Amino acid sequence: MVLPREQTFIGLGVSPGIGIGDVHERESGAIDVPEYSIPVKGIDKELERLHTAVSGARRQIGRLRAKARSLPGLAAGEMEILLDAYIQMLKSSRLIRGAENRIASERINAEAAVHAELTEISGAFSKMDDAYLAARLDDIREVAARLIRNLVKKPSRSTHKAPKGSVIVAEELTPADAAQLDPARVVGFATALGGAEGHTAIMARALGLPAVLGAAELLQGAKSGDRIIVDGDRGRIVINPKPATIAAYERRQQEIHQETKRLNTMRNQPAVTRDGIAVGLQANMELPVQLGPIGQAGAGGIGLLRSEFMFMNRPDIPSEDEQYEILHTIVKGMDGHPVTIRTLDVGGEKIAASLLDRFGESVSSALGLRGIRLSLAHVEVFETQIRAILRASAAGPVRILLPMVTTTSEIRKAREIIKQMAKNLKRRKIAMAAELPPVGVMIEVPGAALSADALAQVADFFAIGSNDLTMYTLAIDRSDEQVASLYNPLHPSVLRLIQFSAEAALRARIPVSICGEMAGDPRFTALLLGLGLRELSMTAASIPRVKQRIRDLDLLAAEARARVIMDQVDAGRIHMLVDDFNALA
Questions:
Q1: Of residues 194, 186, 140, the one with CA closest to residue 24
Q2: Are strands 280-285 and 302-306 parallel, antiparallel or unpaired?
Q3: Which of 267-276, 280-289, 458-467 has the lowest mean pLDDT?
Q4: Phi, psi of 70 (to 5 degrees)
Q5: Long-range contacts of 305-311 (CB under 8 A, 24+ apart)
Q6: What is the pLDDT of residues 98-119, one digit of tens each?
Q7: Judging by DSSP bridges, how do beta strands 12-15 and 211-213 pair with one another?
Q8: Kind of pairing, strands 439-443 and 211-213?
């Protein structure tokens, strides 16, 4: 008997872990969209067909929303946010308005109108060449596909009948598809399309399912019943693995299981080096649903709360009361631990339609009207947010972090507005903390790092954003696959800017933290501590591993190695020195 040939496919590992099972092929969701003309007298009837399809989609999403509440862990919250966005799209979005206009003006059937409007929206999004927008386009496609399925009366595809121990293999899975996967039956999934920024990837992580997306050739090598391994850590898929390959992956599964158990026991252990230096470990927060995991990880506070989540996936700007309610819940939920709230920072990878409509295309540009620039140019938005933050400060310690700052005048203007808003609230006898929150600066552009000594004179603390600092210093867009490999936080220029910022903060005796991906990667922990940083903020899941690295470290040795590294001019040599030092631990 000839055994099937082992084949390996490479994609994007979007959810960690290893799944070993049998291929369950998911049928294609492609739909042939009929297109035909309608008479003038048929316009009202066609609009009625469209509106019936919209109503049906709302009911379907409502049922899915009710079902999603039983999803495990973070998945319920993630799905609720996503489905709320779908429901918003079914109200007065460009997709619906555009389809209505096409039916009336072009006199085409509803299915064709929806499809044509989706095609036009897709074209507009693709010109923006942005990974985040591409992911949002997936959401619009999902809503459009649901409308078209309703119009042609083709039922939705289902994944819940997959046999136990299955790995779902498909051309593409939507977030709603992923949410219907049962982790008790499905051990992972792999697709030919999809990226790390989309909601499908978020759902995979929330469900704890290993997943690899974007393996373009996958469907040519897999068929139902084949044995398959999904390696979400390395972005690999192995079809018909040899017995030796399966044995190796089973050993890795066991190692991961033991490592997870060991790290979970560290929640209450202090983050202290072997020579007794305490390090503050805090968590980054993008959505309120992360509050539980942040507490479970033993974070000493929230080092970066990205407040822009309140402005996303909605047609309008949130009111002061809406922002206050959310922030108050988070601050109160941290039970006395500090919460650092970064003021509105859309643009670049994050787009809020309400701001785009109101203030123009500049807010969508990485180098346009974003961060503190937007806040000072349209001060009414900033004032509303500041009042909400000040009110939330009554529930616990809060810090205000200003993004994209490059000059001292921006900080002074922001401080003046904060004082004015505090007076406003006092006159209205609205509760807030007795003292104004500290006001800090995000060090994320080279201009801020090189001006750190001046900024430190008017700021209460620094937070170094290593992701953007690396991107802007090296002029590298990580979402552009042509240059993404050149992105390197260990580039000598990036390290010098981090060192310069940290030393400026220490000279001014103000706290300094780092909150980019470097902070959550234990390979970089010794270097960052060696450069003088004593506060790190990261995803909650990264805290145990970084804490373990800190407890294994001798700070004097880390400082000595950092001095050697900072004498280097070659990024490759720096990588080698960092790896060598980690290997000694």
A1: 186
A2: parallel
A3: 280-289
A4: -95, 0
A5: 305/330, 305/339, 305/340, 305/341, 305/342, 306/342, 306/345, 307/341, 307/342, 307/343, 307/344, 307/345, 307/385, 308/344, 308/345, 308/346, 308/350, 308/352, 311/344, 311/346, 311/352, 311/354, 311/355
A6: 899 999 999 999 999 999 998 8
A7: antiparallel
A8: unpaired
The verdict on whether 515 is a catalytic residue reads: yes
Cβ contacts of residue 259 below 8 Å, gap of 6+?
none
d(CA 361, CA 562): 42
231 three-class SS: strand
DSSP state of 180: T
Q: Tell me the two tokens of residue 286.
A: 């993008």
Mean pLDDT of all residues in 363-367: 72
Q: Verify whether residue 199 is a known catalytic residue.
A: yes
Considering the candidates 115, 328, 491, 515, report the single residue annotated as catalytic.
515
> pLDDT tens, 22-40?
999 876 666 788 899 999 9
**How would you classify the pairing of strands 7-10 and 236-239?**
antiparallel
Which residues 6+ apart lie within 8 Å of 526 measured at CB? Answer: 549, 553, 558, 561, 562, 578, 581, 582, 585
Beta strand 18-25 with 166-170: parallel, antiparallel or unpaired?
parallel
pLDDT tens for 41-95 read: 999 999 999 999 999 888 888 877 777 766 655 566 667 777 777 887 887 678 8
Q: What is the token pair recorded at 423?
A: 């007076």
Active-site choice (24, 115, 199, 491): 199
Of 145, 137, 142, the residue nearest 120 (C-alpha): 137
> Residue 152: pLDDT above 90?
no
